[in-house]
């Protein structure tokens, strides 16, 4: 049984040809000025003789295309509209009132001083800009919103901030879930090109409806709608204006919309900043290809004639080396690679997926789980990201080799709800909850409690190099013998402060912070001038 592909008439026609002759692009391809043309190199499973025999069919199909992301709409490659540079189309949809201040000048200077960075960023963005602009225009939104990923992530689909905002649109976990972006051990839809774009525009539309102003909506996207609402209320109490420029806000948010303005200014007149924008064609760069069977990511890339890095540029949502058809119903591929994928897949003789999901029946050590599944313990730990000295709790899902006797793919229920739950390995460990200090990092907390940084990161679902926000809740599992002497001194000081204030004045309890939308500080370094 093979995958079922939902392709456009173009791609179906191409299935009759051997258009699987596209050489794998580099990991960071330039945005194309036209549809990718077949190259001379033939992927291993292509049939060159058939290609020669059906060349006329390919030539006839190439003049009239249909993008299956927009069913029923035709693309005539000879039309003036399609041959217009997408930047020109984008310029015609700009609507926001311009900002002109020192913050804008600062951002312009930052980008101007980095022409190679701007070229990489805009080339990468060219892969996705047509689709994003289409979605923006369908909703009647300002075209400036299509430029927002330049500010958020420089169009790096795997971008992750220290606050765990993820993807080209930089969604925080909770906000992503609010907008139906699935996040589990198998996939993270915050990185999905189509899903995250839909969610980001839904969120921006909601914020604009709430505040009635796009600049305030953008501030709320960065800072959180609760914080913007508080800033507005403060100015109202003081009789001050409540526009974006008049609100008191952190420098990061104050700089946020000016950065977007700087990108807009560069798009309007790149020569003014001695910058060059790569041409971007005014038609789709990729097709969506529906799948109905689980398939290894590496095999899918091979069948498409793409490098693994390039395949993941279009399909960055997968957390594991297998695509589960029940959860990821389509992959995105450039036009010629889509046809190559379908054709080579039809010829493929062998298993599609070498991995499957296994639900742990009882709490056990990784070593026992490895024995049961025929894996080396080190391999099981690595692919499932299990830190040392942890047990796998009953009901957890592990990725394990798919044996020859396994014929069924992973179910939709498991693909959507799979989780990995760990417990400390040792009866003397106890759970400690604490609040982060001003300078606390994963490393400093690990040192204080004599555990590994990997364990602290796993327990708190952050990166091993992450810095905690002051007041952030932290969980540590430590021996009953208690933390280090420094930790005991800190605890003693806290107790003394509490006693000294108990009878003199009420202890001030910090208010719960407002919801922060994507929240937190975006520290994708390259994307933040």
TrEMBL record:
Region forming the signal peptide: 1-22
Alphabetic keyword roster: Signal
Chain positions covered by the region annotation Disordered: 25-53, 495-529
Family stated for the protein in its record: Belongs to the transglycosylase Slt family.
Annotated protein name in UniProt: Transglycosylase SLT domain-containing protein
Domain LysM: 432-476
Comp. bias regions, Low complexity: 495-516
PROSITE patterns linked: LYSM (PS51782), PROKAR_LIPOPROTEIN (PS51257)
A matching Pfam family: SLT
